[in-house]
Structures are given as C-alpha cells and as structure tokens.
Amino acid sequence: QLPTGLYKKVLVILHDSVLPYMNEPTLMMDFLTVAYGIGGAISLLALNGLFILIHQHNLEYPDFYKKLYNLLDPSIYHVKYRARFFHLTDLFLSSSHLPAYLVAAFIKRLSRLALTAPPEALLMIIPFICNLFRRHPACRVLLHRPAGPADMSEDPYVMEEEEPSESRALESSLWEIQSLQNHYYPDVAKAAAVLNQSLSEMEDDISGLLELSAYELFDKEIKKKAVDVPLEFEQVRGLFGKKNDIFAEHFSLD
Amino acid sequence: SNPFEVKVNRQKFDILGRKTKNDVGLPGVSRSKAIKKRNQTLLKEYKEREKTNVFKDKRFGEYNAKITPEEKMIRRFALERQQNYGKKNIYNLNEDEELTHYGQSLAEIEKLNYIVDSDSDTEERGTLSAELTAAHFGGGGGLLRKKVSSEQQDEEEEKPKSRKELIEEMIAKSKQEKQERQTRRESALELTEKLDKDWKEIQALIARKPPKSERKDKEEEKPKPDEYDMIVRELGFEMKAKPSERLKTEEELAKEEQARLQKLEADRLRRMRGIDEEANKKRPSHMSADDLADGFILDKDDRRLLSYKDGKINIENEEEEGEEEEEEGEEEDNENEEESQEESASEDEEDGAADSHSDLESDLESEEEAAGDKKEKKHKANENEAPNVEKLDPKREAAKSELPYTFAVPESYETFKSLLGGRTIEQQLIILERIQKCNHPSLAVGNKAKLEKLFGFLLEYIGELATLDLPELRTIDKLVLPLYNLCQMFPEAASDSIKFILRDAAHDLEEVIEVKGRATFPGLDTLIYLKIVSLLFPTSDFWHPVVTPAFMYMSQLLTKCRVTTLQDVIKGLFVCCLFLEYVSLSRRFVPELINFLLGVLHISLPKKQAQGYTVVHPFTPVGKNLELLLVCDEEDLKSWEKQNVPLSIVTRLKETSRTEINHTRLSCLALCFDLIKKCAALYESLPSFHEIMHPVRILLTQHVPVNEYPEKLQECYHSALKELENKVKHYTPMICEKKKPVPLKQYTPKIVKVLEFGKKQAGSKKEQERKQLIQRHKRELKGAIREIRKDNQYLARMQLSETMERDSARKRKVKELLGSLATQEGEWKAMKRKKWKN
C-alpha cells in the first residue's frame, strides 16, 4: 500500500527508531509479515524488525527459515543492504539447534550464489560459511566425504527447490568454493583454500568484513609496497600485437 | 723463535674444529715491520713536505707490470732510436753503422730481397752455397759453424795473449775495419755516381721511374728474387691462423633462446601459483628487477634482437616453432612495408617507396646497433649518432634536417608534447629513441630520473591521444614499443606511474558513485591504459603490484557502471576482453565476466519475463535499458557482415544511420558469443563449471532468437553453444587434505649452518649479509683509526727526534763557541799578565 521508496525508508529506521518506543510492538506484526512476503529488497529490510519481534516478543513465525532461504538470490551480494542482511542471517543461523539439512542447504545455496558475487562479498561470505561449518559439524560432509561415490555425473543439490529439506544439500559437496580457489583476487583464493584443510576451532570474526567495499580493496592493493616488479618478457609488437590477441580479433584501431 | 718475543693469546677452552688465526702473535716483528714500512713511505713524505720539485721516473714502462721485461727493453730501445733519429752526431764516426748478419744488412734481409748475390760466381748458380742453406734451413746444424769456431780456438791456443794485447789488437782491428769501410764506401759512391750518370742516359729510353735511392739501384743490379724464396719468406711472416671463438649456429642460438624462455616461463608459473610467496621474498630478486641502472641489460638485448631477427623469434611453444617463425617473419616484412608506405604517404616527398624503405632499414639497423653492444655505446654514445647520419639517405636527410640528433629529456609534460606534436609516427619514434640513447643512465647521474619521468610523460601523452575526438590509436600502437623498453629499464618507476593512473581512475569512479549513486564507464584512455598494463606486466601472477589493482578496478567497472548506451556495451565488452586476456594463462575465475556477458545477452532479447536465470547488477530484469542490443530490422539483419568494431566508436558514435548502429549491435553480439565460447574453454576445468555457465546456457538455448540472426552470427552462436554443451559433467566428492601429524618433540640437536663463530645466526640471509657487512665495516674502521693513530705517533716521534737533534747540535755549537771564547779570553789574560810581568 505504500510506494516502494517510502516502504524502504520506513523499514530502514523501523527497528531502532520505532519499535523500541511502541507500547505494543506486536501491532507491527502484520505490517512486517506482509513486507517480508513481498520479496526483494523490502523483504530483506523487513527482516530486521521481524527479528526483534521474534526475539523479544515471542512472535511465532511459521516457515521463517524457508522464507529466509528463498530470499537468497544472486542479487543479495550486490544490494546496498548486504551488510545488514548478512549480519542478521548470521544471527539466525547461530543457533546450534538448527537441523543439519537446513544449514547445509543454506551453505550450499550461499556458495552457489557466490559464483556470481564480487570479490568484496566473497571475502565476507567465505568466512561466513566457515563459521557455519564450525557451528554445525554435521555439515562437514560437504567438505569431507571419504566414503562417498567416487564419481557423480550431477550435483545432487537442487537449486530450484524451495523447501530446504528437499534440496538434498547434504548429499552434495562444496564444489563452488573449490572453484573459487581459482578466483583472480588473491585474497579470495587464499580464503577459499582455507576450506581445503580441516578448520580451526575458533570462529572468524566477520563483523569487520561485512562493510567491505570494492574501493577499499582496491586501495589496499594499490598501497601495498612491492619489493620488485616482475615484467612481461614477451616483446611488445603493438597495442594488439600479442599472440592470439582477443582484441585483434574483434576490435580495430580505427 | 725467541720465546720471549712471542705473545700467546691464551684460550679459555679448546674447541674442536675452530680455526684460530690469532693465537700466536709476534709483536716485535710486526712492530719493526710497521716501522720499516713507515720509514719507506711516511718518513719520505715527511721529509719532502716542503720540497716542490720532485723526482720523476720517466723510464718507459718502469711501473707497468703488464709488459714483459723483454718487450719493455725492446720498446725502450725503439724509443731511444726514435729520439736519436735525425740527430747527427758529428763525433760519432760509426753513425751509419748497420746491423748485419753474415755480412748482410738486416734491413735488407727483412725486405725479402736478400738473395745470395751470385753475380760474381755464376758458375756456382744452381748449387747450394753454405750461405744459402744457412738462410733457408737455419744454417744446417752445427757443422759449418763449428769449423769456424774451432779455427778460432786453434788460433787462440797457438799463442795465448795477454789481456792488454788482446785489447790492443781489437782496437787496431776495428780501426782498420773502419778505414776499409770508408774506402769501400767512397768507391761505392763513385761507382753509383757513375751508374747514375749512365742510368740517366738510358732513362729517356726506358719509361720508368727514376730510382729514389742508391740502395734501389743496387737492388736493380741483383737478380730478381726467386719465387720460392719469396714464398718461404712470406710464409715465415704470414699471420698464423689462430683459433677464434666458434660462431654459434642457428640451432644453438635457438636452443639458448628456448632455454631462456623456458626459465622465464617457469618463473612466471611459479609466480602464478603464488605458493612460495614467502620463499620468493627470500630468494634473490627476479632477474629483471635489478637491471635498472647499469645499462648492461643483457635480456633486453636479446629481446631486441628477437624481434628483428628472423629465425630466432620469440616462441613459447616448441611445436609451433617452425611455422610461426616463418609467419612472424612474414608479418614483420609486411609491417615494414606498411610502415614504409605510410611514411612515404604521410610525408609529402618525392621519395620513392624504396628510398624510405631503405631508410627504415637503416633505422632498424641503428636500433640493433643500440641494442647490440651497450658497452661500446657507453663509451661513444655521441659517435653512435654519427654512423646514423651517414646511413641516412641524403634526400631523406634533407627532408628531416629539422630533426636534431641529440635531445634533452623534456622537463615538463608541455615541452614533451611540443616536442612530439606535429610529427609523424616515425619521427616521434625516432625522437623517443634518440632521447633514450642520448640520456642513457650510464652516461650521466641524473639521467635515470629523467628517463623515469619520460615514461610518465609518454603515458600521459598516450592518454591524451586516446581522448581525442578522433583517437590516434595507430600512433599509440607504435608508441607502445618505447613504452615497453622504458618499462624494462625502470620497472619500479613504471609501475609507480601506472599505479598512480589507476588510483586516479578508481578515485574518480568512487567519487562519481558517491555523488550520483551510479557510475559511468570511463573514457577510452583508461581502457587503453588497462590494455597497456597487460602488455607491460605479466598478468598471470598470483599477486602483482600493478596487475592486481587493475583487476580490482576492472571488476568495479563491470559491476558498478551503468550500461545505458551502445558505447557502454562496447566498453564493457572491451573490459571483458581485458579480463579474458589477463586470465588467459592463469585460468582464474572471474565471476564479473560471466555476469556481464549474461547481461549483454539479456539486453539483446525482446522484453519479456526472464525465466530460469537472473541477471545481476548493473543489469536489471526490468527497466529502460532493455533491448539495447535488440535488432528487429530484417534488412539490417541480412546485410550485416562480421567485422571488427572500430574503437573510435567509443568516443563518438558516428552520426550514422540506424543500419550501421544495428550492425554494430550485431557485431557486439557476435563478440559476446565468442567471449562466451572462450570463457567456456577457459573454465572447463573448474569443478562447478556447469553451475557457473548454467544461466548462460539457459539463455542461449531457450531465449535467444537464433533463427532471426544472420548466418554468420548463427555460426558464432552455435560454436559457443557447442563449446558449452560438450563438457562432461564430472563431480568427485571433496575430501579434506589430511592434517599433517604434528611431529613429536625430539631432543636431537638442531643443525644449523654456521657462517661465523660467536655470531648470532638468526635472521634471513639478507639480514645476515647486512650484519656481516656492518661488522666488516666496523672492523675496517677501527683498523684505519688505529693505523692513523700509529702514523701520528710515528710522526711525533720523528719530529721530537728532529728537534732533539737540532737542540743538541745547537748546544754543542754554543759550547764550542763558549769554549773558544774562553780560550781566547784566557789567552788574552795570559798575555796581559805577561805584559804586567814584563
């Protein structure tokens, strides 16, 4: 019923400027559930208020995790509210009473989506996933399955399945993270390589990583002092003069 | 020897294996040695301190250890003769004495004209005279000589003479000889005069040059030398063939080149994996890093040679060697021709193509020269220009007379621009090359900094060329070469200036995002810079000070920048190409690349609900920028032909018809298909390849209206799809690497290489080296101070002894004087007394 812009604004400030001052915060229940059901960015924003209601006011929300699971789509790594969303998701998934299949489904989905994520999000999500593994050792089959079938023709995980329990996440492996070990950004590749070894006991602190921006990463890289600068040894023959130059195939210098 | 003169440094503990140098000292000996040395040096200096005239030893080569004593003697003798030459000494009767051998003058023998004068005894001709054999065969052993000497011995035995007699005899003999010689000479003179006369009479008859000297005349009288003799003499004097260093065959050169490339490639792979980064740091730095200043850049030489010599061209893969060599050679030829054509076209001269071509060759030669022998160049950089001048065609030279041969490095960008502005590409290249040559870092101290600046100017200039309305990409294409060379010389400075540019660009982008909330693609110059990065630096490294920031920047471009126009699409695709090129060797995964290609495909579709795939930022499933690449016009679809996208379109989309725009769109699509194909080939080995490519595949199979596309585009489409489809699905469950078992603590001794006893072994090799150097410096400093102190003591002692000597002498003299005065006085008093008495 509200225009989208206003909707977002309201939801952004709801949790710390409105709810604490209401006598009956539960009155916001309907508003928030509707907002949560809309999908997209609005759902992400509604999550915060909803969390307060669940946490402090005993709101019983059926299929909460299922909805949360379905909120995960490729855009979550690109939207502005990424830090906020993952902060909350971290909270929701911190309970050690969650069933393994659910956590596995989350892990699998997050890592599947990470295949399209920019490096700053990857730097955040990989420790996030590591933390999930630490909290839920039952999920470690995703990383270590010595007794499984040697060769599979298909990833058992079903991405399109809306129900986490049906997604067969526990039968799968984290090939996505393995792929990310080949990421072009060295820090991401290193972070992904951590999962190759057995994890340490201590959880990573991801609060500092939530707000990373691409520019910060760039800045960090460019300020690194190099001892020496390796040089290309192939003699230059022109702007597009390399062997098998892609540019020479498609662009002309006119 | 004497136990009282030996000082023993007592050791507290004896340690096995320790070498002790200083356990026994001989203080007396060493002191006396030191004093002796000072006597020879310091004392000498001290004594000569107020003397201005010095004794100079001008004997030739007296202190030159390189010359052997014999040679020294020979040279000295030659010098002496030279000095005396021309000076007639009236007292020297033996002035024109000649060195002889068997009565023949040596000078004549050397002229190869020595032949037994057989005029007198014609009957002996044909037989071997003793002299002849002696000349030819070294005198035929001892037989003949022995005879002579034995005769002499007999004589001596007959009457033993006293020394005096002998000397007298010798003097008499020599006098006699001298007289004889004089008479002979006089007669010879007479004879020659007579001959001269005769000759002059005949001269008119025979047209020949008049004789220059008497000797020649004499020669004329002699028979012509035998051919055999001539040959024998010649052989004697002929330069002996010496074994020189063998020239390397092409094969060997190629092999060496290959080995070098293999080494470089191995190095690159190591860096690509980035495993041993730590070890890397400790290793001596990459070879290319320390060839900055000295100018002896061997690798660079090779590279230069590489690109210009057929048959030894830069080859990575061994299999392709043969074919590519030829191809590249041809390419180069073509290039040369093209250049020459351009040249002749661009400069309004009557120069034929051949002329300019040859000129170009000379340029190439000069370049090779420059690369070839740095050492030579170091000494005569200026002379180096001289051959250039000679080589240039006179015509061309006249035309180019305004190009000076030496350039100073411009101090500011403005001067640099004015230097290059208005010149043709070739001229610009020549100017740059000359600047580099004239200001080679080995020639002067400040040149390094200047040339480093030049790199920055050149970059800026390239950027400016790219931002023009009509970007001069051809010029940039050529300017990349000097850029590469400069970068090879100064990697640090080059990386710094490129990083500076990147930082600026990223900063601008960030600012725009903060202000407007969204960004636009940067200009062509930035894209060109990114391309140049890939030319100058190895993009496959795990981490690289320049390439990694460039990666980050490109990632931002693909995720942050809005795609609103066709130019944006082209720029985006350009960045995609850059990404692909950067990772082509390392095969690293770039999510942004796939996202962007997906988005490009997405905007080529008619508006409808996207199914089965989701596009991510900067593309949106709904919005106004959809259908940016959609082409509906049937005719345009039909008339499209595959062609390269001109880059200038990025700065200004020509005010062209819809048709051309549509064609550009189709070209973009074709490019996109090709990139997808390349991505598929590249990422084949990733374990989740199918998941990564899933959205693209769905889009390609279910949404792209293939049948409407022209045939060529359909081909592209199908090849891309084929590349995507025919990959096997293959999943193996992940297994964690086993943790290495922590070894039990053992009490075996840790064995460390001991460099120096009593020193701490901690720290890296470099650190240790540094410590050692510091230590050595300290030791040397202490030693020097001690020496100086001892010198001063010695001097003081000398001065003291001098003054004491002087004082004692004075005392003695005073005493003497006083004594003499006293005696005088005494005598005088005695006299007086006598007087009184008297």
From TrEMBL, chain A:
<feature type="transmembrane region" description="Helical">
    <location>
        <begin position="31"/>
        <end position="54"/>
    </location>
</feature>
<dbReference type="GO" id="GO:0032040">
    <property type="term" value="C:small-subunit processome"/>
</dbReference>
<dbReference type="InterPro" id="IPR027193">
    <property type="entry name" value="Noc4"/>
</dbReference>
<comment type="similarity">
    <text>Belongs to the CBF/MAK21 family.</text>
</comment>
<keyword id="KW-0472">Membrane</keyword>
<keyword id="KW-0812">Transmembrane</keyword>
<dbReference type="InterPro" id="IPR005612">
    <property type="entry name" value="CCAAT-binding_factor"/>
</dbReference>
<feature type="transmembrane region" description="Helical">
    <location>
        <begin position="85"/>
        <end position="107"/>
    </location>
</feature>
<dbReference type="GO" id="GO:0030692">
    <property type="term" value="C:Noc4p-Nop14p complex"/>
</dbReference>
<keyword id="KW-1133">Transmembrane helix</keyword>
<dbReference type="Pfam" id="PF03914">
    <property type="entry name" value="CBF"/>
</dbReference>
<feature type="domain" description="CCAAT-binding factor">
    <location>
        <begin position="43"/>
        <end position="192"/>
    </location>
</feature>
<dbReference type="GO" id="GO:0042254">
    <property type="term" value="P:ribosome biogenesis"/>
</dbReference>
<protein>
    <submittedName>
        <fullName>NOC4L protein</fullName>
    </submittedName>
</protein>
From TrEMBL, chain B:
<dbReference type="GO" id="GO:0030692">
    <property type="term" value="C:Noc4p-Nop14p complex"/>
</dbReference>
<comment type="similarity">
    <text>Belongs to the NOP14 family.</text>
</comment>
<feature type="compositionally biased region" description="Basic and acidic residues">
    <location>
        <begin position="211"/>
        <end position="281"/>
    </location>
</feature>
<dbReference type="Pfam" id="PF04147">
    <property type="entry name" value="Nop14"/>
</dbReference>
<feature type="region of interest" description="Disordered">
    <location>
        <begin position="134"/>
        <end position="397"/>
    </location>
</feature>
<protein>
    <submittedName>
        <fullName>NOP14 protein</fullName>
    </submittedName>
</protein>
<feature type="compositionally biased region" description="Acidic residues">
    <location>
        <begin position="316"/>
        <end position="353"/>
    </location>
</feature>
<feature type="compositionally biased region" description="Basic and acidic residues">
    <location>
        <begin position="297"/>
        <end position="315"/>
    </location>
</feature>
<keyword id="KW-0698">rRNA processing</keyword>
<feature type="compositionally biased region" description="Basic and acidic residues">
    <location>
        <begin position="388"/>
        <end position="397"/>
    </location>
</feature>
<keyword id="KW-0539">Nucleus</keyword>
<dbReference type="InterPro" id="IPR007276">
    <property type="entry name" value="Nop14"/>
</dbReference>
<dbReference type="GO" id="GO:0030490">
    <property type="term" value="P:maturation of SSU-rRNA"/>
</dbReference>
<comment type="function">
    <text>Involved in nucleolar processing of pre-18S ribosomal RNA. Has a role in the nuclear export of 40S pre-ribosomal subunit to the cytoplasm.</text>
</comment>
<feature type="compositionally biased region" description="Acidic residues">
    <location>
        <begin position="361"/>
        <end position="370"/>
    </location>
</feature>
<dbReference type="GO" id="GO:0032040">
    <property type="term" value="C:small-subunit processome"/>
</dbReference>
<feature type="compositionally biased region" description="Basic and acidic residues">
    <location>
        <begin position="158"/>
        <end position="201"/>
    </location>
</feature>
<keyword id="KW-0690">Ribosome biogenesis</keyword>
